[in-house]
Write a structure and sequence with these properties.
Blueprint (H helix, E strand, L loop, with lengths): L1 E4 L2 E7 L6 H7 L3 E3 L10 E9 L2 E10 L11 E4 L2 E6 L2 E6 L5 E6 L5 E7 L2 E6 L3 E4 L5 E5 L14 E3 L3 E5 L5 E5 L4 E5 L11 H4 L2
Parallel strand pairs: 3-5
Antiparallel strand pairs: 1-2, 2-4, 4-5, 6-7, 7-8, 8-9, 10-11, 11-12, 12-13, 14-15, 15-16, 16-17
Length: 204
């Protein structure tokens, strides 16, 4: 995926090559590790390149062994001469254009799905928690529901509305929060109980 930021072109790529050395050796680029050691059993690896006038001026590989994530429009944000990128259950903040690491931090225990702007902060959609964080990576609040924040029925797990955040969990329970993380609606999904026939009615 390529985006334009000021005079720079930033390419973010999800590297799915199972060969650990495919990018590392060919580019000899810096590596940021989510875990403390390099492991051939990586689960996600993101390759980021910054170009100016078509000339590559910096690149890095973000290497994560804890959990897998991809590169999509809602997994990174570029502004204030920085880019925030989800990698597994961590978020990396890098300088533009040098891609120097400013900070990286683990948020959701399992995986972070997406990152969204909210005023001067960000909302992080994790698998088990929803977080509001500052641009410096400090947690303002977090919220957990009855189940994980993945909905198999197609309901949007997280929607930022005018003054609210609307959430659906795995069971399609609905929650509405204000921007301070206070729950203002709780709408559990009601599943009708199955009406069972008595055994003597089955053959009638």
């Amino acid at each position: 995926m390529k985006i334009n930021y000021k005079k720079f072109e930033i390419e973010l790529r999800d590297d799915l090559n199972s060969n650990l050395n495919s990018i590392i050796n060919s580019k000899n680029n810096p590596i940021y590790l989510g875990s403390k050691k390099k492991d051939t059993e990586y689960k996600s690896r993101h390759y980021i390149v910054v170009k100016e006038l078509g000339i590559e001026i910096s690149n890095v590989t973000i290497y994560e062994t804890n959990s897998a994530s991809g590169i999509y429009e809602d997994t990174f944000i570029a502004e204030d001469d920085k880019v925030w990128v989800i990698s597994g259950n961590e978020i990396y903040c890098l300088k533009i254009p040098s891609l120097e690491l400013i900070w990286h931090k683990e948020f959701d225990y399992h995986v972070n799905f997406s990152i969204h702007k909210l005023n001067q902060d960000f909302i992080i959609h994790g698998e088990s928690q929803i977080f509001r964080i500052t641009k410096e990576g400090e947690i303002v609040w977090s919220f957990g529901g009855r189940d994980i924040w993945f909905n198999p029925e197609g309901n949007p797990e997280l929607t930022i509305e005018n003054n609210n955040i609307r959430l659906f969990d795995f069971e399609s329970n609905e929650y509405v929060l204000d921007f301070d993380g206070n729950q203002i609606e709780d709408n559990p999904r009601i599943i009708p109980k199955e009406i069972k026939k008595k055994w003597w009615d089955i053959f009638s």
